[in-house]
Design goal:
Elements lengths: L1 H21 L2 H12 L3 H8 L6 H14 L3 H14 L4 H13 L1 H7 L2 H7 L2 H6 L5
Helix pairs in contact: 2-3, 2-4, 4-5, 5-6, 6-7
């Protein structure tokens, strides 16, 4: 009996967390971005926030696009993050990821002047996905 209750509890918890995740405003903006194949919905959503957590919101959005194999969109969002939050360590992480894993996309999106201005390899080598 307790096994059945435990399974039911876990199932309800899972469904509740899934519902919350899908109703997340950032996730909704990401979904609109994926559907439109344009960063406009996501940039509009992120532009409405001015909090210290904004680089983290960018990180979550970039990670979601990256893991969905939308690398072109993710790389464009990395560029936007870099210009708007150059001091954030997560910026260095994503610049490094793009340069390492998607060098062709990096060359298309980050010219030499851009990289000289924003990319710090020493900081990037010390950064993980948490910044």
């Amino acid at each position: 009996m307790t096994g059945v209750l435990s399974i039911a509890f876990v199932a309800v918890l899972f469904v509740s967390l899934l519902f919350l995740a899908l109703n997340n405003p950032l996730e909704k903006a990401i979904q609109r971005t994926l559907k439109a194949q344009s960063l406009e919905p996501l940039i509009e959503h992120l532009g409405r926030h001015e909090t210290p957590a904004l680089p983290d919101m960018f990180h979550r959005a970039i990670n979601r696009l990256w893991t969905s194999h939308e690398r072109e969109l993710a790389t464009s969002l990395v560029r936007h993050l870099t210009v708007t939050h150059p001091e954030a360590k997560i910026t260095q992480y994503w610049l490094n990821q793009t340069l390492t894993i998607e060098p062709a996309l990096a060359r298309e999106n980050f010219d030499d002047d851009f990289l000289k201005r924003y990319f710090n390899p020493q900081v990037a080598s010390q950064c993980g996905p948490a910044g």
